[in-house]
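Batch job 17 of 40 flagged for manual review because the log was empty.
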Amino acid sequence: MDQIKDVKDQLFRAKESVEKMQEGNTGFAEAQQHVKMAEEALNQLKENSEINTEANTQEIQKAEDLLRLIEETYQASNQ
């Protein structure tokens, strides 16, 4: 479960950095880095057969959905 918490922390940091980027039109590189780190953490979680179980499917799906929203927000802000 620690890996799920780590993914949630990465997603939170990505969300915060994208929001910060939106507010000040700065921090594009930082936001990009945090989004990439969150994506990598989620991919590692999904590849871990001990954690990627049916019992954790809902948590993983929530993380995927949040990452997708963060990525869409980042892309829209970066145009």
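Reviewer: the log was empty due to a logging misconfiguration, but the result itself is present. The mean pLDDT is 90. Unflagging and moving on to job 18.
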